[in-house]
Amino acid sequence: xxxxxxxxxxxxxxxxxxxxxxxxxxxxxxxxxxxxxxxxxxxxxxxxxxxxxxxxxxxxxxxxxxxxxxxxxxxxxxxxxxxxxxxxxxxxxxxxxxxxxxxxxxxxxxxxxxxxxxxxxxxxxxxxxxxxxxxxxxxxxxxxxxxxxxxxxxxxxxxxxxxxxxxxxxxxxxxxxxxxxxxxxxxxxxxxxxxxxxxxxxxxxxxxxxxxxxxxxxxxxxxxxxxxxxxxxxxxxxxxxxxxxxxxxxxxxxxxxxxxxxxxxxxxxx
Length: 270
Prior knowledge:
Blueprint: E1 15-20, E2 26-35, H1 36-44, E3 51-54, E4 64-77, E5 80-89, E6 104-118, H2 123-126, H3 142-154, H4 158-165, H5 171-182, E7 187-201, E8 214-216, E9 231-241, E10 246-255, E11 264-266
Parallel strand pairs: 8-11
Antiparallel strand pairs: 1-2, 2-5, 3-4, 4-5, 6-7, 7-10, 8-9, 9-10
Helix pairs in contact: 3-4, 3-5
């Protein structure tokens, strides 16, 4: 008498494998051996790209939201098969796995470097000659003051220089500018902060580009510190779609002053 037996199982029902790569990608592979007809129904109903929640139990210790990646069904012998299902979850630097329309992930960065600016942006000069007074011909006109300073520097004799110096209206300020220019100082360094906000969400971003090259009352930053004493200009903006979610990146550039003749303004958000 010949007795037919199923192929012996070298691993338990719902065996699993866990891997994590350098970019943060987590993959969980689950293998089930059973009747081919039952497993075929499960394989045919599999939806690659669908997002599901895995719940840990006695057979598998991992929980969380994962994307159904790959599935394969292998024939093991008469009436038997092995089903292999692969689930993946990618870290914040890559894809985004969500469980609802209201879920989002936000990353904020403050980057402060240095920027070279002309002497006319130095505090001692700007406090005396504000940009809005330029071209008015008044005592506080920075354009006229620079002309006097340049005439003083270019004077052919000491006597001529003293005559021009006597015309200085804000004598201490203009004399200080002339001295620094004659010493060869033309520029100085200032802090140049840049704020970046990156949000990954299932919702399509709205008003994209509305703040680009616009003066903003306050950047949309909640966590990292926003340096005080700066005016903020909307920088570059980018939106990407990876098949699962949108990633919206915004930047703001800080400066002591942004010329309102050149840049429009965006009022503070409600």
